[in-house]
């Protein structure tokens, strides 16, 4: 009897989350796909130094917080790529989760990536394992734009 009551209670507690998950709008669902694709394109643009693409997808009021705590605005961050301060040989997406809000007008992204940086002075590989959070908003004229980036270094995986 206690087991049945506990199961019923758990089902009732889970119901609001289930209902909420079912009430996402069609625009939210579309936004998730758009933002996921944009994340991957943005990482590729950072590696290829596609400044025109980066200018388009970073909002003018961007706050970009690196894993070391240093913050840049849009112009500073793009300039750091031009100057070679931010260098990316390769960016591998390991996990990506997008949640859309406000009828597909805003999205929060969290994920994990591995960045291959230029080799260390001794020639060994230089990898950065990061967890990150991104906030994107959909501007009616400019499309999806990154307004916030925050990352945190993760320990290297032990073999």
UniProtKB/TrEMBL annotation:
Stretches assigned to coiled coil: none
Residues spanning the signal sequence: 1-21
Cited Gene3D superfamilies: 3.10.450.50
Top-level lineage group: Bacteria
Record Pfam families: DUF4440 (PF14534)
Domain annotation DUF4440: ranges: 35-146
InterPro entries reported in the protein's UniProt record: DUF4440, NTF2-like_dom_sf
Alphabetized UniProt keyword annotations: Signal
Name used for this protein in its record: Nuclear transport factor 2 family protein
Lineage of origin: Bacteria, Pseudomonadati, Bacteroidota, Cytophagia, Cytophagales
């Amino acid at each position: 009897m206690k087991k049945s009551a506990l199961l019923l209670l758990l089902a009732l507690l889970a119901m609001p989350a289930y209902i909420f998950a079912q009430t996402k709008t069609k625009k939210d669902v579309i936004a998730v796909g758009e933002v996921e694709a944009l994340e991957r394109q943005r990482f590729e643009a950072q590696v290829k130094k596609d400044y025109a693409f980066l200018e388009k997808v970073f909002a003018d009021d961007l706050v970009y917080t690196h894993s070391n705590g240093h913050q840049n605005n849009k112009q500073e961050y793009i300039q750091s790529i031009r100057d070679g301060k931010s260098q990316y040989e390769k960016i591998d997406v390991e996990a990506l989760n997008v949640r859309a809000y406000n009828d597909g007008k805003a999205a929060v992204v969290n994920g994990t990536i591995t960045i291959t940086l230029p080799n260390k002075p001794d020639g060994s590989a230089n990898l950065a394992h990061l967890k990150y959070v991104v906030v994107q908003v959909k501007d009616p004229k400019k499309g999806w734009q990154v307004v916030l980036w925050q990352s945190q270094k993760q320990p290297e995986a032990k073999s």
